Amino acid sequence: MALMKVKFDLKKRVKLSQVLWLMYWFAVMAGVLVFVMGLFLKIELRKRSELMDNNESHFVPNLLIGVGLLACGINAFGGKICYDSLDSTKFSKWKDVMKPFLICCLFFNVLLFLSALLCFMMRIPLQFTLAEGLKNGMKFYKDSDLPGRCYMKRTLDLMQMEFKCCGNNNYKDWFEIQWVSNRYLDFSSKEVKDRVSSNVDGKYLMDGVPFSCCNPSSPRPCIQHQMSNNSAHYSYDHYTEDLNVWKRGCREALVSYYGGLMNTTGALVLLVTALEVAVMVGMQYVNTSLSTLVNPEDPESESEGWILEKTVKETFTDIMAKMKAMGKGGQVEEGAEGEQGVATVS
Amino acid sequence: MLCQNIHCGLFEFCCFNWIIISGGTMAVLKIKFSFQRRVHLAQGLWLLSWVAMFSGGVTFCMGLFLKMELLRRAEVMHTTDIHVVPNLLMVVGLASVGINLFAGRVCQDSMDSTRFTQWKNVMIPYFGVSLFFTSMLIVAMALSYALQPNLEESLKVGLKNGIRFYKDTDTPGRCFQKETIDRLQVEFRCCGNTNFKDWFEVQWISNRYLDFTSKEVNDRVRSNVDGRYLMDGVPFSCCNPASPRPCIQEHLTDNSAHFNYDYHSEELNLHNRGCREALVNYFMGLMNTIGPCVLSVFFVQMSVLASLRYLQTAMAALEGQENVEVETEGYILEKGVKETLNEAKETLKKLLQLGQVDAEPAPGDAEAAEGKAAS
Q1: 8 Å CB contact between A106 and A23
Q2: Confidence (pTM)
Q3: Which of A181, B228, B231, B234 is most deeply buried (CB count within 10 A of its CB)?
Q4: Could you report the average pLDDT of every consecutive run of 10 residues in chain A (346 residues)?
Q5: InterPro entries from the xrefs (chain A) (predicted)?
């Protein structure tokens, strides 16, 4: 029993070919879209590669770019075959190519599905990369005179303003590192000397944050220095003040940004996979309906189309048997050669 | 084939049969049209009208975009004079879609001379209306440059108010000013109205956050006539992220307040530009981009109207003739420019006089006139 057998007359075959040709064009555009999404993702990762310690993996966007290009090629080819299927003389030259083409399509669809899954899973390694990268980035905030690190201050400031975040987990991360360069500290003053000698590493730590942490929605001018000292500012209680600086940490902000991007891309790729599966099934019907014409000379005769010639179980056992036969055939051939070799020597 | 047709029509327009106005009864820019050329003209015009309709849509979108950008910054603008430019662009964009649809329709009908005659009476008013709307494009472009001083003045007043009300985050109607000005300064990388010193002349810290029991606050407040707390400091949004040094916001003019700091040579600490200059540059940049697009839309539209006029006059000469394949002449104006203007004046006068004469005669006068005529 064939899987999902359908009877076709000429009209139905023509309609199927036309609809399939249109769907192939949509699939080409979908391939272009996947390519563009992959490119966009790659550019976004590149833009912030400084914050990820230049360590981020570009595997997923590269895969998407490759898959997008492949989709365009396969679908354009499929569209050409579809266009030719209306004319039986043109179609006969494609007959031998059809089976390998359909198997190729099957593998390609599996690849698409795997790419979609990878998109959704990319969030996890990204989280770790960002945590490391941001921690290191903040350490180099003050080194605006070191070649290779001189842009870190600017990058961090712009990022904190754009993503409305402060520090790695929250604003207190800034209290634990020295973010004011020694060039701007007056080491002859008592205050500076006290602070530097108050900790083991000799760092100038303070309970203050850079200006880029300030929240413009605060009703009060930004309080950046002596944040944990209530008496340093009039009418200020650092426990109840929530609008002064951004509350979110930058790792969380960036992960949710990239996570959203990846989720959208993953959903898109799943839709494209569904479209590709549909065109593959359509192509199989076109192929089978054109090769089972009741009267091969008459193009208007009836035919049948199906997805698989036998049931799923039978097809599977057939494939296994074929693979075993190929494996055994290889062994028998080797044995025969060995005997021949032995025969000639002796 | 179609590309050849447009090329053909425009080439003839430029090079053939230029009859210069000599003050006599010569038609303006007369061109001979054979049947084939008429057909080519109609086909080319149909295609051109689709292109012009698309560009009308583009004009509308550009007007919409400009209006959205102006509305986004409406909080720092005092007057809305400049809004006339995007409004004009939107109106002309919509009108040109209609004009070009009509032109395409007339073009299709011109293939059949019986259907073409139904449009005869509508054509002259149509041309008048179309020319009016197309000239509005040039007016919009001219206005966008002419209104620049207005924009600058409006921004000057708007920003001054914004800076004055920066501290009033508890006054309804002004509570958003702080956030607006902060976001503006961060986004456009600017500080103050003309430069950062504008902040020294305004009290930008609300009295709610000033400790009036402290000596320092009292000294400052008493040191000026209005009792304001003025300081040589700026809000955090003036800070330049590109500065190598953590931002210095307070005691800006006091070199000794900060280590290794010289107020006169420090350039990267704050944004150097004033927000008025930044916003004016931004909007003029937008309008400079839109300008050439509007100019090209104008040229496309004028060529559609000119081709339609030629088609109309060439087809009108066919009226009443049995053989539709004869050669006819097309022109822009039937008589010279001077004569056409005089004729137009006469027609207008007549219309006005008719209007007056209709309004005047009262029943008594009419009877008196009849009585006089009878006797």
Answers
A1: no
A2: 0.78
A3: B234
A4: 80 89 94 96 90 84 96 94 83 85 94 94 89 89 87 92 94 93 90 89 91 93 91 89 92 93 95 95 89 73 80 84 84 56 48
A5: Peripherin/rom-1 (IPR000830), Peripherin/rom-1_CS (IPR018498), Peripherin_LEL (IPR042026), Tetraspanin/Peripherin (IPR018499), Tetraspanin_EC2_sf (IPR008952)
